[in-house]
Amino acid sequence: MKLDVSAMENNFAPVHAGVGDDDDLGLFGAGADLPAMELPTCADFDGFQKTNKEMLKHKKGTTTLAFIFDKGVIVAADSRASMGGYISSQTVRKIIEINPYMLGTMAGGAADCQFWHRNLGIKCRLHELANKRRISVAGASKLLANILYSYRGMGLSIGTMIAGWDEKGPGLYYVDSEGARLVGSRFSVGSGSLYAYGILDEGYRYVMSVEEAGELARRAIYHATFRDGASGGCVSVYHVGPDGWTKLSGDDVGELHYKYYPVQATPVEQEMADAPAA
Amino acid sequence: MVGKNCFAIASDRRLGVQLQTVATDFQRVFKIHDKLYIGLSGLATDVQTLYQRLVFRHKLYQLREERDMKPQTFASLVSALLYEKRFGPYFCQPVIAGLGEDNEPFICTMDCIGAKELAKDFVVSGTASESLYGACESMYKPNMEPEELFETVSQALQASVDRDCLSGWGGYVLVVTPTEIQERVIKGRMD
């Protein structure tokens, strides 16, 4: 059954208007790096947080990957959102466009990822305005990692990769809600990551064309969707080059399977198909 | 699902260990005799063991009575077999479908300790059962011919398993009429 992917189209014009109308200094006041969200007032804060965490526990059911090669960074993800066993959506945009030259991936709690990536986009824009130059990928990932570290233990569930191109060339960082920030050239995050690593590690070379790299990423995510129950939907592949990111492809996994493994009639089936005609 | 003097029984084909898919050709619908089929969902080892036990019991019955078991009798047999293990159950939910006297279609489902639930239209079981109830309810019509029944069952199955992480990876549909048995493997989303 073909998926309706209209939900994945980008309907918003790139926002360069900035934050002119912001009156409250909440985000770029003195306390910008401290937790700015309200915390509940209750007798047993830790106990409350613990029950909260259990209730909202997300198991990072997804597959995302990113790798650096000589022509930039490839970022790819599936598009399934699952709530336990139930598939709540097959057309989730897991690759978040932070700004025209930086991408973030979503794994874990969808709300957490969406909010904090957008927040990161705001901070990056503010940095550009304040310093008259774009923020580096290292800087952007550090901003996010610091915010997530300050909320450590409160049940945020985020496993993201920040990929971009800055003055030093392609950059890729893995940032998660436990506070980890790792620099690297190949990452895969989510429940399907092990399957994706199998394909990615086997086919990876530093020197590849953009098409080859995109095809490697697509196959890796496809294999993860096949084996992992919590991954599926569509594979989106993006390429980040010196001029920013471009979306290379978005393919429905249901159709990709039959493209990679076309159905071949077994001899018995072939006979059965021919028999009525005979 | 019941049609006009026929029935269809269908299943998905996935075998998995929680989220990991191990096989995509797992058989869940088994033949007891030409006009009686059982579909078993749940723990794979119990599916296979229960099927083997039921075939054993049915063969003994055939030897003693020199005829095939009626679907209603078979359902009672399954129910008793499951309740025997009340305090250490088989983790299976069976779906039984057969053509009884005068080729009247008979379907029923059970929980894992043998509570029989008869229905006149359709029965479902498995991890996607809630989805299946919804899909079957909306797609079912009484007195469908075998071809239409096949389409309905396939569409209901595919629509429901596409909303479940733990089901799918192909489908298997069997339509049984008094004169013939048609089995088909459905190409579905493999994610």
UniProtKB/TrEMBL annotation, chain A:
Gene Ontology cellular component annotations, sorted alphabetically: cytoplasm; nucleus; proteasome core complex
Species annotation: Leersia perrieri
GO MF terms, alphabetically ordered: threonine-type endopeptidase activity
Purpose: The proteasome is a multicatalytic proteinase complex which is characterized by its ability to cleave peptides with Arg, Phe, Tyr, Leu, and Glu adjacent to the leaving group at neutral or slightly basic pH. The proteasome has an ATP-dependent proteolytic activity. Component of the proteasome, a multicatalytic proteinase complex which is characterized by its ability to cleave peptides with Arg, Phe, Tyr, Leu, and Glu adjacent to the leaving group at neutral or slightly basic pH. The proteasome has an ATP-dependent proteolytic activity.
Subcellular location: Cytoplasm; Nucleus
Keywords from the named record: Cytoplasm, Hydrolase, Nucleus, Protease, Proteasome, Threonine protease, Zymogen
Major localization class: cytoplasm
Gene3D superfamilies for this protein: Glutamine Phosphoribosylpyrophosphate, subunit 1, domain 1 (3.60.20.10)
Pfam families: Proteasome
GO biological process assignments: proteolysis involved in protein catabolic process
Organism phylogeny: Eukaryota, Viridiplantae, Streptophyta, Embryophyta, Tracheophyta
InterPro entries xref list: Ntn_hydrolases_N, Pept_T1A_subB, Proteasome_bsu_CS, Proteasome_sua/b, Proteasome_suB-type
Family membership: Belongs to the peptidase T1B family.
Superkingdom of origin: Eukaryota
Active site annotation, chain numbering: 62 (nucleophile)
Name assigned to this protein: Proteasome subunit beta
Catalyzed chemical reaction(s): Cleavage of peptide bonds with very broad specificity
CDD domains according to UniProt: proteasome_beta_type_5
Keyword NADP: no
Subunit structure: The 26S proteasome consists of a 20S proteasome core and two 19S regulatory subunits. The 20S proteasome core is composed of 28 subunits that are arranged in four stacked rings, resulting in a barrel-shaped structure. The two end rings are each formed by seven alpha subunits, and the two central rings are each formed by seven beta subunits. The catalytic chamber with the active sites is on the inside of the barrel.
Record bears the keyword Hydrolase: yes
Automatic annotation (TrEMBL), chain B:
Keyword Secreted: no
Protein name: Proteasome subunit beta
Domain of life, per lineage: Eukaryota
GO cellular component, one term: proteasome core complex, beta-subunit complex
GO biological process, one term: proteasome-mediated ubiquitin-dependent protein catabolic process
Organism from which the protein derives: Leersia perrieri
InterPro entries listed in its UniProt record: Ntn_hydrolases_N, Proteasome_beta_3, Proteasome_sua/b, Proteasome_suB-type
Compartments in which it is found: Nucleus
Protein task: Non-catalytic component of the proteasome, a multicatalytic proteinase complex which is characterized by its ability to cleave peptides with Arg, Phe, Tyr, Leu, and Glu adjacent to the leaving group at neutral or slightly basic pH. The proteasome has an ATP-dependent proteolytic activity.
Protein keywords: Cytoplasm, Nucleus, Proteasome
Classification lineage: Eukaryota, Viridiplantae, Streptophyta, Embryophyta, Tracheophyta
Keyword hit for Zinc: no
Subcellular location, principal: nucleus
Assembly description: The 26S proteasome consists of a 20S proteasome core and two 19S regulatory subunits. The 20S proteasome core is composed of 28 subunits that are arranged in four stacked rings, resulting in a barrel-shaped structure. The two end rings are each formed by seven alpha subunits, and the two central rings are each formed by seven beta subunits. The catalytic chamber with the active sites is on the inside of the barrel.
